[in-house]
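#structure-requests
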Amino acid sequence: MKPAVSNKCNHWLYFYHCIFLPACRMSTTPPRPLLLIQTAFIGDVILATALLDYLHQTEPDTPVDFLVRKGNEGLIQQHPHVRQVLIWDKKQGKYRGLWQLLRQIRASHYNRVITLQRFASTGFLTAFSGATERIGFNKNPFAWGFTRTQPHVIGNGTHEVARNLHLLAPTYQGLLLRPRLYPTPADEAAAAPYIAQAGRYICIAPTSVWFTKQFPQEQWLKLLATLPPQYRVYLLGGPPDVAACEHLLQASHHTNIVNLAGRLSLLASAALMRGAVLNYVNDSAPMHLCSAVDAPTCAVYCSTVPSFGFGPLSPFARVVEIKGELPCRPCGLHGYAKCPLGHFRCAHDIETAQLLAVLAEAEMVNL
């Protein structure tokens, strides 16, 4: 026989279940927001998006804001895992804008501010953000103001995505996450007519900000001369690349080339690249666009090397580079306005047959 429960106990049970527990639930405060900072180039922002997916998987309730340089905001303004995009105009009122950003950041009361860069300006924003946790790489000049730092080692094969992930999770040893972009319906609609018209097509993004990372025009012309004629070729790039792509089109004898440089947004270009049989790119932003939408990639490396940690991450991704070694290669992390030794063999000694071999492999995958 069960012992009787006293009225006093009943009162306490009622208080616990009906008053105390609901009050505890109501007093649970939502997670404070987190800020990611990456104000460098387009490719750097794209690679940083891998952290957005990681945070969504591990902390789905944490609001995430993202600071980028003006011009790169279109990549993530509609990203489903970003609450707010902060923009730094580096060309107009650069340092006035930096102070305004610092005030905005401090007013947002972030729990964590994480800079993915090693430069003083973003280190300054992080160190003086007022955030509980201020995280960045130990090479940053303002690392003394961080609550936690991580080493940033280039050249040992560690990918930049992994280096960034270790800022969030220093002991992370899981699979290398790919960056992810989300073309909007408008981006998909902009790319759709070119996909429908072409059937099977190839994209070439022939330019780069850095001359020694850019496969030379004469080398692209050799490839265009040998591509199967049934493929339409789309030349891709931004507004600054229109003239270079038009010059390539005019100099080529391929009969089915369309210059789309300057006509598609970055995300619309990504949507187009996703449907290509193959995308020929330099070690540059279009390579990372491919990685972010799983587009088949042939990355041509001239003066830089994949071991720097910025290589392609698409399921079908191949790197083409000079056979053998050159004592002068790599000559720098980013590249130069011209070859320091004047011969540019790291680009000119790449054989067209190497590029065609990747296309043949991609064709087999697409059967």
